[in-house]
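Q: Entry one of two.
A:
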Amino acid sequence: MKIAIHGKEFSSDTEKIVMAILKRLQDENCSLYLSDKFHQILKEKSIHLESAQIFSHQNPYDNADALITLGGDGTLLDAVTYIGNKETPILGINTGRMGFLATTAKNETDQALNNLFSGNYTFDDRTMICLKTNKPLFDNKSFALNDFTILKKDSSSMIVVRTYIDNQFLNAYWADGLIVSTPTGSTGYSLSCGGPLVLPQSKNFVITPVSPHNLTARPIVVDDDANISFKIEGRNDSFLISLDSRVEIIDSSFTLSIVKEKFSTRLIRLPSDNYFDTLRKKLNWGVDIRN
């Protein structure tokens, strides 16, 4: 198999797990591709994989059967920027914290790799967001798996985000910002701002205001075939926008609209994966905290 790997900085405790994974992949005679970031991390720890090839945003890999991420959800989101429209299946091994996307725990790594090599898995295709602008942004990687956000740039007064659905006026949000999340991203920033949980295969986007001045401005769920566009106003003519964790600074001369991306993020779903189990575990649903 051809396996690409992307990971974040890891501790000495996690190093044993990372080394065990790399050894297993080599024992299986996999052709390995390392992201430039992960390669640099290994190099700094004097870990060398002589036969591995290096890929970057500028020089992507030709193809791979799977991409393994070693970290948390942020690492997996970063890996998506390397994949783009290749739709390489991703196996997220959680060496981080929350793990809504990277659901394979460190103690489940061996079984996860057994399933990967035996083909005992299915695919979970996740809808992505595409940002349309009148000027280049985000190094032409204008897509996101979790969310798109508009935020005021500093501690200045709130901004006004005039929002349109298919060119029909929806609302003027007087707020610190606005989030448009995919179903996948509904467990992220949108959730912390009062947005609803949306099942991954729901064909929707969620629009959630950030600290709205008018408390009747509630999150709204819209069809993911909609074109969502914005006009931003504020005392300061600089605003922050983000796609997942990537940030740009813009002004009011930019036109912005959100549509569904033509390609998806393909996650590897193992037999033990269950979305509702993940929700209960990560959000502590049903946990009696009285003791």
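Q: Entry two of two.
A:
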Amino acid sequence: MGRERVTRTVEGADCVLALGEFMTDINMGIYTARLDTSRTINATSQRISIGYHHFEEILLRDFMEGLLKGALGSRRKISRASQRELRPFRPQLRRPLTVRRFWARINECLDENTVVICDPGDSLFGGADLAIHRRSEFVSPAYYTSMGFAVPAAIGAQINKLKLRPMVFVGDGAFQMTGQELSTVVRYGLNPIVFVLNNKGYTTERFILDGPYNDIHDWAYHRWPEIVRAGWGCEAHTEGDLEKALAHALNDKESFSIINVHLDPFDRSEALARLGKRIHSQVAFAPTREKLE
């Protein structure tokens, strides 16, 4: 799901050094990544693998300290994939919201006092292209990809560092699993800004294999403040709606804000588009949406 230039840089390297990295279906792009094992050093808490040779009972810390002491050869600089230039966002007030424009606008809201928390799915794929300003400012369960992570995680993140305000991105399907933790948010007086990316279903699955099983019942997510008797909520259909919502949410620091972001069911982030294209050919035949309906 990575950008093409970054993928070429990593896969074409003469040596890929992976420290503490467990190779899973997610960080390997549903196993579409092409890493040459003979040119890979993979060091984890369990063992060290150098090429096709495995060395057990070597501590990761000891291995890293050995690397720092070792003569690792040339220090010549190599060209790295540059970050894309961020252009100033100019809202078109009546324009319906799209995923790409949504993330472009969010990029301008982040500062050193924000911690970004993304649920798995297109919330994570879209959020991965955000410009993060400090270390440990981006939190997501990218290893286990456990849906329903983001809202509860906002509680832990803010209690850990009260000066950081969580900006939470969660799909409608994931919110329906654990969104009720907004009650705990209120109990402890926290103030995250929660964006529910509402596309009426499971977007990632739609782009792998579509069918009515990917659709879910639509909730009035913005009305959760009525249930927990605190907070503020609104809907955002257009870029103008999003501007108003952001203005209110960023200034209202007394409690949480929840913004019901309405998106087209088949809109998706650039990363998800790349992922769907690369793994579509690996999915076995199954009945189409039309046949099931």
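A: Comment on entry two: The first strand starts at residue 16 and ends at 19. The chain has two domains: 4-69, 99-282.
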